[in-house]
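Lab meeting prep.
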Amino acid sequence: MLDRIGHGYQAFLIWLVDRCRRAAVWVVIGVFVATGLSAVYVAKNLTLDTDPVHLLDPNLHFRQLQRDFYATFPQLDDLILVVVDQGSAEDRRDAVHELATLLERQPSLFASVYQPQQDEFFDQYGLLYFDVDELWRLDERLAEWSPFLGTLAQDPSLRGFFSILTLALNEDPTPEQQKVLADAFALLSQAIEAQRLGKPPASSWKQTMLEDVTGKSDPSRGFLLAKSRLDYSSLEAAEGPLEFLRRHSADLEERSGVRIRLTGPIPIEAEERETVVRGVGLAAGLSLVLVSFVLIAGFRSLRLVGAMLCTLLVGLLWTAVFVVVAVGSLNFISASVPVLFIGLGVDFGIQFGLRYREEFSRFGDHEEALRRAVAGVGGALTLAAVAAALSFFSFLPTSYRGLAEMGLIAGVGMFIALFANLTLFPALLTVFPLSRSRVASPMKTTEAGSPEAPVTSAIVRYRRMILGVLVPVVVAAVVVVPRLHFDFNALHLRDPSTESVSTFQELLADPDTSPYVIQVLVDDLSAAEALAESLRSVPEVDRILTLSSFVPGDQEEKLAMIDEMALVLEPVLIPQAIVEMPGEEEEVQAMKEFRAALGAHGSRHLQGALDKNLKTLMQSIDNLFDESQGSTRFVHDLRVRLIGDFPKWIERLRGLLSPDEITLRTLPESLTSHYSAQDGRTRVEVFPAENVEENQALRRFVSSVQQKAPGAIGSPVSMLEAGQTIVDACIQATLLAILMSALLLLVVLRRPGETFFVLLPLVLTLLLTVATCLALGVPLNLANVIALPLVLGLGIAFGIYLILRRREADSHSIVEVLRSSTSQAVLLSALTTMASFGALGFSSHPGMASLGNLLVVVLILALLCALVILPALLAEWEQKGWWGASEPIQR
């Protein structure tokens, strides 16, 4: 029954090719017209789905938790994180406030805007968040600096700055005042030297005071969280909000001297999309060029290669039409299909083309060559297409929807490529016929028309040595495979040179700003406090924030301390009279008087830090005067560096000296809405104790929190769960593909031995690939892991071609197969596929590059298994007489 079906199908293929030959001109015209219309249709309708959420099954548990969390706190979804640094602290604050005001006036682009711990509430109540000891030290520090602060409050110029320092020197300072002066002199020396060398301003006076009080400097960054409105019907869903932010940020940077960068999910995805599109375009173009080069070098016939490439491009456009009709859009994963189609689809043309050339060189008749070629390889091509399609379709039942869509497109693409090669390819060969004088290979050939490669004899002669080496390698590979490292961090697959990723990595390095925070939804505030208490003992957790965290403790004692500070400082900080700002010459004169006081004081032979810093400062001032050559041009820049934002900070300090008691009810709505939902549920933020960019640290952090809170969600949880989903999908797809391919081969070939030998190179390739990755220290990641199931299609095709050609050979000998055009076609197919997939390695996108590099490794191993290991094993099998071969094997 199966024999009759097989013969009937072969007859159908011969009839189909013959009909296309007879109507070649009309076939070519019809195909090109249809393809042109298809190209227009695809250009108008093909889109790229930019929403990464659509890549995974929405029914996954962590996806359900994620949806529930963002439904409860929608203001935390679709965020753009604006990071403001450089410039002075007050310049950063002003920049954040100005940007926030601008964004609030654009409700069509931004749903909400939030300034974390930088709004009017913290401008009034900030001192209550100091510890009691920190507040005592701040009180002492401000008392020490009060004369300096009072003078600058009255006269915020270089005149006031240097006059108070001159006065302090002339009054024979006490040991406590000497310490203050030593610190001031050190800062002053740094500022002058930075100006002379053209460097950014050094630490501000406020930073120095806070470092001494709290052990950490004033925050070097300002933050703004903007919830953007996205348009997923557009290729660039966040184009509007991002373009608005970038345009106004550039203007603000120029005016204020700060640096503004965008990061967070939305900017990272937008720049990722640009990198992917650019990478796919480069890879597809380079892939086509490299494939063309390999084909021309292998066939030495421009007409044959031209027909093959035309068929390939037509098949690619037809596949794009299927994407629009059946799927609707491409995702980040299926966007690599053009490169995959070029690499896998060209295999059919190579097999058909080389067999046609072999038959044409033997008989010299185009019609006969086409019939014999399709009779010889048509069944193998069909079986390879079906097996490859089954391998790709094995992704359909997985939870990784992005890969499932790619599997559907690639699987259907295999049938499209097969159909194009059985119709358009013979028609093109008819319209543009080959010259028999140019068909023969330039290499020495046997009677069968294939190269007489010395490698063939070597493989057969040294088959036992090859197998002897293979056995321990396979055993070692089986042992080490469980040790393979998998990198779950999607950030490692993104381009580190983009602004969003580099900024994100910078924030990760600082535990106070790490974006990798776990979120937990609980029923109410009491449950949140109970969970926070249980998590405080977890070593992987640094700190926990709930709404109650913003109600400081010891408020009665702190308020009393702040009242005492206000009694002392308010008279100092409030200007008593309006002082006319001096001119630059007057400021220079004040600086010269200060230099003279330094010289007079330096002759007293002071000890310790004051003496050292005083001498350094004198030298710095002298250098500045010498370089200025009597000009006052340096005054403005020096005033900015020394005085800077100090008047604004004094005004803020006055506002901080009059707080009231904080309760849950007095917390501002902008803060409470980010921690307490309308339905009463409360958010708990859990921060990691270590940098969780490293995989093991990420696992420890997530697992330790999930033990206490199974409903935990957030970037670390999503990253780990999504990565595990992808790994499970690839393992499931690989096993399913092997199983379905085995069943298909058993049904079609009806010989368990042949099925075994077809599948053997495939299994060996997968095993050796994993072992090679481990040996080279190359981890599998969320991108290159796709290479393992992807190579199933091509790996199984190699085995099919060789085994079916062996069945067809008169002697049923592997030697004859190796001397035929089939082995040459396998070699050329592997080289073209390497060229196609290898083009991905030139992509600027790290994920695509890692996929391309691993695919090259996989293909090298697949070629080794198909053309070296499989023939060696078959030769030994035939020599033992276990699988009859009439031609004796030469030792």
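Slide two material, second protein:
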Amino acid sequence: MLDTETKSRIDSARDILVGKVPDPKSQVEQITIALIYKFMDDMDRQSEELGGKSSFFKGEFKKYRWSQLLDKRFGGHERLLLYAEGIERMNENKNIPLLFRDIFKGVFLPYRDPETLNLFLKEINGFTYDHSERLGDAYEYLLSVLGTQGAAGQFRTPRHIIDFIVAIVDPQKHETVLDPACGTAGFLISAYKHILRHNENLTPDERGRLMTSFCGYDIAPDMVRLSRVNLYLHGFPQPVIHEYDTLTSEERWDERSDVIMANPPFMTPKGGIRPHSRFSIKANRSEVLFVDYIAEHLNPGGRAGVIVPEGIIFQSQNAYKNLRKMLVENYLWAVVSLPAGVFNPYSGVKTSILFLDRNLARRTGAVLFVKVENDGFDLGAQRRSIEENDLPEALEALLAWKNSRKKAQEAQKEMALAVSRKRLLGSPDCNLSGDRYRAVAVRENGKLPMVKLGDVCTIKPPKSELDDLDNALEVSFVPMSAMRENQPTFEATETKTIQEVIKGYTYFRDSDVLVAKITPCFENGKAGIARALRNGIGFGSTEFIVLRPDNKRLLPELLYYFIASEKFRSRGVAHMTGSAGQQRVAVSFVQSYEIPLPPLVEQVRLVAELEGYRKVIEAARQILAHYKPILRIDPKWPEAELRALATFKNGVNYLKENKGKGIKVIGVGNFQDNLVAPQIETLDEINPKGVVTEDDLLHDGDVLFVRSNGNKALVGRSLLVRTKGERVTHSAFTIRLRFVHQKTLPMFYALLFKNAAYRTQLMGRGANINNLSQDILRNVVVPVPPLADQRQIVDELESERALVEANRELIARFEKKLQAKLAEIWGEEEDGRKEPQDAQKDSA
């Protein structure tokens, strides 16, 4: 147990360094080096007192002894030079173990202030190497700085979560234990202490074997160094920690362990991981590969506990689904859902714990899902201790399931739910969210209670949550341009420090919901859920309103659908304030806006259904946006200039007023990316300035080109005419091409003119970017394939186009389904509900 005096001494050493060494990781490194330096001298002195000789500081290194450093005859500068030289040369000392030499490799003194060093050495001198657990606890407390400062690049696992996992996995004295992403060796130390608590009378041989049974990997050299020191100070004479890339190296692939526990890194480098070929799950996401690695590297009868991000639980990509299927079929026996915020203040990411045991999985036909809503600490930046703590009850439920093999129906507690493997494997994506399988609560009188957003959300969370954070901490930055319309997520590509954004920008965290408050962004549906922010924190435009839903009452995903809905936006527009073009939605409107509130378990089901509809709609839109007909040109086809195939005529002038003269017109405004002219019934009727002759009227199969327009992007665009028997002409800003050659199929050439190469040819023939002439068109050279080839190509492309166009109907159908589901949530009488009294408007 860490005593107050030791804790105070560690805090004091850090306080001394902080002015010269502001980085917490560097502080830990400097204290680590000094402690090992001091402890080597302690061991030499103990040996001498027992009649032995010095082992470490002898020969040319004798002058660097700790006791020599503190000699009062040395001045401050002399002591500083001696200490700096000693730590830089110590890795050359052949008298000290390789472990210590590695610790001193590449170290240096990062400051040159004698007074700071004097005070620092005085504090370190208060520590004595005595092989006690107190010393190991002291070092673990020092390493906790990395967790609270977020400076090591990976978030340290909270000690109470580590101990919880170790208690469930229950490593035994005869078993090998591995952490393949060990960081500072927290899981290994906790497992070691767990074994000691349950085996008070270990023999010397058993203790010796135990010291060789723990192993860790880490890719970062500084983490390897810290974990070795941590284990050494807990009594491990030769800690087995390898600098090793678990995901890309094959060197240790064939090694297996009885127990594996880990909190692997969640982030994947840009471009993904490039793993070797021996993984059973093909993926490039680090979290998928780590879980696969852990499952595959258990000995027969082995057990594992691993912390995973929510992507492992429900992401729909094949790699995630294949991993979940493999786990449910062979390894998984329990899933523990942790509250979002366990890793606060540096990440609000939602996590779960997977427990694996092949033997137990084979004996039980179900997986136990346990939901932890409170872990004994609040979910704010400070993570202060609170009375509510579900972990003891969760531990009891898990151990009861594990040890007594309870049947599924016997585990139906409020926080625990057993779901058959058959049901899990029968779901389309093998989702591992326990709430998805809970029975849905029945509504009272068929309706849901209505609540104000201000009662279930924190609106504009205070920046005071960041008061204790380092201003140099990197956070995500989200400009308004990064927010997409009608998309629940957005990508935070920019990174800034807290100091750069704390003033003048809007603050939010992972899982907060953002909505644009300014016109036209609000009307266009700019809203989204913050995900994967740098260190869990984001800042963005002042034109965002931030809503943080109470995670016990409202899912951020359902909140997004409410505030992105046409219902919310149309009513918000009525509450806008400000001048034309710069109007904003009042915060008071958002606070008082009422929404229906289903039970959380029903919200999970509803969100899954809404997301299913949205993904179909988005996929269909992507097809429509990206499909371009590809007409392949055979170089063997004969060619001709268009003058030999067609005639040309400019369109007519007409008055925009006095419409309705029985002649319809295709104008420049009808040219977009469409292949065929718009529906005839949608065209304007015109009042021509002169007489419209029969030659001015369009025929089926004519092709029109934009010849002149203020919008440069439209010049040269074309479309095929289909009149449906109506009298239709075209504006003076267009040119009509009419084929007269018998061996030309208009649709073939309409498709050809959509080819970017032909638009380039038009512009490259001397056309002014704002003007296309008949002469330029006459000189364009086109292929003239056999008519049969033209028909075959058109038939193939028309079949393709019909399939693509069917996506418009798909979008309409699924948008209707989505809106119907939202209407169902609101209740049948919602359209007739009276709105609350207009909220008092403000200018926020």
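Talking points for slide two:
Residues 47 and 586 are 76 Å apart (CA to CA).
The chain has a mean pLDDT of 84.
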